[in-house]
Amino acid sequence: MPWKLTPLLLFLAWVAYQCSAQARTDLLNVCMDAKHHKIKPGPEDKLHDQCIPWKKNACCSAKVSQELHRDTSSLYNFNWEHCGKMKPACKRHFIQDNCLYECSPNLGPWIQEVNQSWRKERFLNVPLCKEDCQSWWEDCRTSYTCKTNWQKGWNWTSGSNKCPTGTTCGTFEFYFPTPAALCEGLWSNSYKLSNYSRGSGRCIQMWFDPAQGNPNEEVARFYALAMSAGAMPQGIRPLLLCLALILPLWLHE
């Protein structure tokens, strides 16, 4: 009898691997269920300017990518310049942030369900490469804002965001004294400052050269694999189903 178990155990190991691999795939190459995202990612040859790096596989349309470059976009009526003119060097980081949010199909491991009127999903604690966060902070430290969390708490009575009563405009460096304060606090922890550098395969790059491929694909695969390996309550059900299908065949031997 023991010798009969060997091929069965090998087969069950293969089945378990296939089941876990399928779970990982569900986190890859996906779009969020949000206001302007496509249902599935795909080629978009006419993406605009800073969103071009995602043109081979994007969750955003060309029209959305154009709106992302406007100071007050019709997508959300959000005005970056709520405290006066934002410096161009700073603004380009916000445009790139928007392109990543709307266009990237590589944020699956960090997507969370939310109960909001304008979206059903968001991403949370995306590990942003330390150089991207540092340069964002450096280029924006002398521009002006009035809030530390831009996701909520604005005065929308005019139709676009205005500083709420009781706040005053100050430099980014005043409201965000460190790079982590900016990257993590700005959008309610959408990002988390990573200790890893660009090119490490362990952090999401906001900026990359599309001629060299999209490095965030590798990063998403790494974290999806890690999450699947550690998510026993989610992975055990398909494994048990596989075992249930195989067990009767073994018992009839």
TrEMBL record:
Protein name: Folate receptor beta
Residue ranges constituting the Folate receptor-like domain according to the UniProt record: 30-205
Lineage of the organism: Eukaryota, Metazoa, Chordata, Craniata, Vertebrata
Family: Belongs to the folate receptor family.
This protein's record includes keyword Calcium: no
PANTHER family, per database record: FOLATE RECEPTOR, FOLATE RECEPTOR BETA
Keywords, in A-Z order: Disulfide bond, Signal
InterPro entries registered for this protein in UniProt: Folate_rcpt (IPR004269), Folate_rcpt-like (IPR018143)
Organism field: Phocoena sinus (Vaquita)
Gene: FOLR2
GO MF annotation: an example: signaling receptor activity
One Pfam family per UniProt: Folate_rec
Record GO biological process: cell adhesion; fusion of sperm to egg plasma membrane involved in single fertilization; positive regulation of cell population proliferation; sperm-egg recognition
